[in-house]
């Protein structure tokens, strides 16, 4: 019987071996290869030439990378709080209907942008926000001056608006599911006491959604630092470098300048930032006492 049990255990390892091999080859190995490339001068054609810390020293003096980091930081600081607050308010409002038809319809409508392609969404919004786009056409009918959504002064904020529109449904669903887990008796007691909508939100809902809020904030922050496809299709990183994000800079360095060694160094800077954010997420969620949604 002991031999059969050992054979069964080994059979399990045989089944998971292929997927483990795929993960190793497609994820783990490239990480270490790119780490080596970050210390080299490599264009993807000729053999890499080891240059030590030159790429990392160059990062400090790179004005484009510095601008992209500032853009990414502004993008994160704007989108994360706005989409978190809006998702919470929407989820709480929809929870008052519980499983009503209107609640299901609004949740389904808000979730459509989540499942849509980011590239397609960016292209559509670019057409909407252009100088002769649908939004300015509508403003013209109302005798309101056209708005230059995608110029150098407004393009980054326009990207933030589109990002909030796309992420809102996902975070709203997380909040909505968490709110449904809150005992209805708490809200019924609050109704008996004559509490308003705002009082129930502040004193009951928000404290009990602490873990979900931390999760949503950290996820939103990580996604913002990884922003590429939506912003790229909306603005191409311009005008100038006004909407160039860190991932977009890595893309340009890799596939336009063919400087894969320097791009690897840039990617590792981004990786360090994301790892630090993940570390903060773990600490904060553990401190909250419950890491579950």
TrEMBL record:
Signal peptide: none annotated. It comes from Harryflintia acetispora. The chain crosses the membrane at residues 12-37, 73-93, 105-128, 155-180, 201-225, 260-280. Residues 69-281 form the ABC transmembrane type-1 domain. Its main location: membrane. This is Multiple sugar transport system permease protein. It is found in: Cell membrane. The keyword Cell membrane applies. SUPFAM superfamilies: MetI-like. It is a multi-pass membrane protein. Belongs to the binding-protein-dependent transport system permease family. GO terms for biological process: transmembrane transport. Keywords: Cell membrane, Membrane, Sugar transport, Transmembrane, Transmembrane helix, Transport. One of its GO terms (cellular component) is plasma membrane.
């Amino acid at each position: 019987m002991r031999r059969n049990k050992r054979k069964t255990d080994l059979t399990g390892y045989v089944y998971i071996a292929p997927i483990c091999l795929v993960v190793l080859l497609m994820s783990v190995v490239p990480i270490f290869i790119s780490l080596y490339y970050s210390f080299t001068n490599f264009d993807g054609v000729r053999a890499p030439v080891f240059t030590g810390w030159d790429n990392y020293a160059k990062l400090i003096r790179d004005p484009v990378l510095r601008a992209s980091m500032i853009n990414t930081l502004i993008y994160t600081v704007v989108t994360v709080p706005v989409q978190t607050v809006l998702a919470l308010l929407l989820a709480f409002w929809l929870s008052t209907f519980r499983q009503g038809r209107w609640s299901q319809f609004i949740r389904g409508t808000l979730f459509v942008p989540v499942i849509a392609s980011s590239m397609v969404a960016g292209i559509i919004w670019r057409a909407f926000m252009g100088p002769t786009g649908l939004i300015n056409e509508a403003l013209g009918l109302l005798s309101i001056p056209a708005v230059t959504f995608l110029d150098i002064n407004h393009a980054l904020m326009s990207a933030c608006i589109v990002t909030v529109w796309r992420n809102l449904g996902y975070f709203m669903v997380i909040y909505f599911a968490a709110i449904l887990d809150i005992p209805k008796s708490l809200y019924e007691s609050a109704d008996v006491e004559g509490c308003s909508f705002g009082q129930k939100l502040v004193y009951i809902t928000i404290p009990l959604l602490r873990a979900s809020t931390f999760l949503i904030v950290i996820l939103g922050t990580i996604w913002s630092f990884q922003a590429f496809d939506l912003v790229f299709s909306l603005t191409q990183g311009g005008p100038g470098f006004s909407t160039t994000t860190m991932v977009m800079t890595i893309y340009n360095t890799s596939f336009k300048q063919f400087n894969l060694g320097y791009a690897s160094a840039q990617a590792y800077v981004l990786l360090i930032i994301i790892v630090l954010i993940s570390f903060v997420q773990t600490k904060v969620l553990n401190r909250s006492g419950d890491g579950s949604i």
